[in-house]
Amino acid sequence: MRNVLLLLPITCVVLAGCANAKTPVYTIGNVSVNAPIPQDWTCRTLLKNTIDFRINPSQYIGEVITPNDDGTFSIVAKPILALGSKPIEKSFESGSVYDSKIDKKASASGNYLAIVTASLAANQKMDVDIVDAVHASVPPLEYPDDKLFALAKSKSTIKRFWIAELYISTITESVYSDLSGSTNITAPAFGADGKVYQQSSQTTHDYAVAAKLIDIDDYARNHGKASGGPAAQSRKSACPAILPPGLVKGFAPSPPKSFAILPAVAVRPK
């Protein structure tokens, strides 16, 4: 985390009275807000029930899940993998992927930041640092196409998503509030949008689990033999449009009411 405190000497500022000033007066320079997110995050969907997926994530690669009303996901089928395919799990030695000051506007991009900024007030900003810690996946060329296409042919009243990848990330957050005219800076602070924001909460450390999900029905419709889709290598070399309909990028709200939701399935390490 970087708490940016820029002090610029000037003759007179609003933060301190100018009358009879005998020592230099300082103001806090502006910093940029809402840095763009990494492009690959548009392929990720946050899983609300992170405790269920964060331990030994590789064992959940290939499982089929469905969204519940509360935004969590339930497992509805055991792992589906190609013959001989084995999920790969690796830890990042240096996985810092996002470090920025953000506010409510950051949620407009519909990604991790939509959840991170959900509790922010209009007069607050946040210093957030997100670091990828663990990644589990199967190589795209090892996707079990035939098995997924076969599953898609079976009728279902629920939406089914195949877990292709899982990311475990740590999130460090500090909330800053607008000083609203106060001249007393007693904690780390920064300037943004012409105002001064001072840290108003303890720094918190949490984690998030996100998945690259493939809508099984859409995948079969777009890439199955009947669709006349492109060759396997070309269609899997880039991030496909796999985000579940009704789910904002990187965020999992309640599914459409037309979904027939299965009873919640306890998801625990095997």
Keywords:
mainly beta; elongated; two-stranded antiparallel ribbon; 12 strands; 270 residues; 31% strand
Q: Report the span from N to C terminus.
A: 35 Å
Write down the overall geometry: elongated
Q: Major β-sheet, in short?
A: 10 strands, antiparallel
Domains (count): 1
Helix run count: 5
Helix/strand structural class: mainly beta
Q: What's the overall average pLDDT, rounded? A: 74
Radius of gyration: 23 Å
What is the count of β-strands?
12
SS strand fraction: 25-35%
Low-confidence stretches: 3-26, 226-270
Helix/strand order, N-terminal first: EEEHEEEEHEHEEEEHH
Helix content class: 10-25%
Folded structure, characterized:
This protein has one domain. It is mostly beta strands and 270 residues long. β4 (64-67) and β5 form a beta hairpin. The protein contains five helices and twelve strands. The strands form two sheets. Strands 3, 4, 5, 6, 7, 8, 9, 10, 11 and 12 form a ten-stranded antiparallel beta sheet that branches. Strands 1-2 form a two-stranded antiparallel sheet. 30% of the residues are buried. 11% of the residues lie in helices and 31% in strands. The chain has helices at 50-53, 112-116, 145-153, 216-223, 232-236; strands at 7-10, 25-28, 45-47, 64-67, 73-77, 88-91, 96-102, 124-137, 161-178, 189-192, 195-199, 204-215.
